[in-house]
Amino acid sequence: MHERLPCFLAGIPGLWNRPCKVIQPPTLAPKCKTPILRLAALTQDDSKGHGVIRQAARYDKAMKLVWQSKLVMLLVLPIAAADIVLQIHWWLVNAPQVAIWTVGLSLLFALVAGKAQSATPAGAVAGAAITAMLMFSSSKLPYAPWQTALAPILTLLVMTSLATRIGQGRKERLGTAEDRRGRRASQVAANLGVAALLCSDLVQSWLADNSWLSHLAFTPALLFSVSLAALAEAAADTVSSELGQALGGQPRMITTLRLVAPGTDGAISLTGTLAGVAAAGIVALAGSLALSGGFTMFWIASAGGVFGLFFDSLLGATLERRSWLNNDAVNFLSTASAAAFALGLLAIHR
C-alpha cells in the first residue's frame, strides 16, 4: 500500500522517507475495443515503429468499408455454388470422370492451401469452389485435368504464396504484411471472382452469340482469354505488391511520381512492376499452353493482366486513398478491368 503513494508524497517528513517506486502502467491488450486504446497499445512497442501505426490505421479503415467485402462475396460465391451444382449434375450424366476429377482436385487444392496457410478455412473453401467452376468451364473431351484452368490457377497459387513469404520480416516492420492465417474468403472472391463469373455458361453463351465476336466461332477456346486475363491480373497485383515491398527501393505514387513510403496505396516501384508484368505473363503462358489457346490467348491475357495491374494502382492512388473503396473492392474492379481490356482486344483481333 505504501508503495502506491505518489512520488511527491514519498519524501515528505513524517511519512515514508524511502525512494519512490515507479509503478509502470499496465500494458494494454492489442485487441482493445476502441481505436484510440488499440492504437495506444500498439505504439507502446517502439521497435515496431510507424509500421504498426500504419497497420492499425489500415485496420480501422477496413472495418468501415467491410460491407464492400461482403458485397463481393455475395456477387461471386452464390453464383459459383449454383453453377457447380448444375455442372456436377451434367457431367455425372455425360462424363462422370470429369466430375470426379474436378471435385477431387478442387478439394485437394483447398486442403493444400489451408495446410500451407495460404488461406483461412473459409478462404480455402471459396478457392475450391472457384477452382471447380473454372475447371468445369474449361473441360473438354477427351478429358485431361492438366488441360483445364487448373494449370493457371496452380501457377497463380504457387507464385503468390512464394511472393507473400519473401521479405516477411521487412513487411511486418512496415505494417504491410499479410495475415499469417492466410487469405480470407472475401480476398479470394475479390481476386478470382471475376474470372469465375466470366466463365459461367450464361456469360459464355452471351459472348459467343455477340456479332462482334463472331470471328471466334471456330476458336471458342479463345473466349477463355477474358477469364485468363483476370487471373493474370490477380497474380500480377499480388506479386508486384509483395516483391516491391520486400525487394524494391523507395516507391513513387503513380499519379504524381512523388516518393512515398512503401505500402502506400497507389505506390509503384520498378522492381515490383517488372515482377508483376512477369507474373502476368507466366499465368497467361500456363493457361494458353493448357487450353491450347496459342500465342493469341497468351498475348491478349498478358496485355489484359498488365493493364489491370496499372489500373489497380490508379484506383489505389485515388479512390482507396480517400477511403471510398477497400482493398477487396479495388482488387475486384481491377480484375474486371483486365477482363474488359482483354475482351476489347478480342473484339478487334482478326
Q: How would you portray this structure in words?
A:
- This protein has 350 residues and is an all-alpha fold.
- It has two domains: 23-64, no CATH class; 68-348, no CATH class.
- Helix content is 67%, strand content 1%.
- The protein has 14 helices and two strands.
- It has helices at residues 7-10, 35-43, 49-64, 66-94, 96-115, 121-137, 150-165, 168-174, 185-198, 201-209, 224-247, 270-290, 294-320, 327-348, and strands at residues 252-253, 267-268.
- Helix 5 runs antiparallel to helix 6 and helix 7 packs antiparallel against helix 12.
- 46% of the residues are buried.
Task: For this entry, give a set of tags.
67% helix; mainly alpha; disordered N terminus; two-stranded antiparallel ribbon; 350 residues; 2 domains
